[in-house]
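4.2 Preliminary Data

To establish feasibility before requesting continued support, the project team ran the inverse folding procedure on a target of 138 residues. The structure was first converted into the token representation described in Section 3, and no sequence information of any kind was made available to the design step. The complete token record follows.
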């Protein structure tokens, strides 16, 4: 049932969605290495937030699930909503506790979070009919 919604996208929308899905999923997957290997920057971030190590590992697991869902057409909308939730937390953390620049990264992590959030928002909008709760409103 969900697949039929994903397949019904016009060609341009489908291409745009796939580009956004891939960008978001690749960024999410790339950052997992740092979370799961306890890279010093990740440990610093989650220590500052008072969530080390469970917040780091837990958010990594959720990001892995979101990336997997984003890579499957039938579940891309759900993955986008999940990624939006995680990135919302990351963006809020940057704006309230961490700052835009973390340990001299020039704001890279913040920009990556904004990029994933923007791509996920686009995917969620384009594939809104495949998101069970949302499709009832459109």
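Position-by-position output of the design step:
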């Amino acid at each position: 049932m969900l697949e039929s919604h994903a397949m019904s996208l016009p060609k341009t929308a489908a291409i745009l969605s796939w580009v956004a899905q891939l960008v978001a999923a690749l960024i999410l997957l790339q950052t997992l290495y740092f979370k799961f290997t306890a890279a010093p920057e990740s440990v610093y971030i989650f220590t500052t937030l008072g969530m080390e190590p469970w917040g780091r590992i837990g958010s990594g697991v959720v990001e892995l699930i979101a990336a997997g869902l984003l890579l499957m057409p039938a579940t891309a909308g759900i993955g986008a909503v999940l990624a939006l939730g995680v990135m919302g937390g990351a963006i809020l953390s940057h704006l309230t506790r961490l700052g835009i620049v973390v340990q001299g990264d020039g704001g890279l992590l913040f920009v990556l979070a904004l990029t994933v959030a923007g791509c996920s928002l686009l995917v969620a909008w384009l594939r809104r009919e495949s998101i069970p709760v949302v499709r009832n409103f459109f």
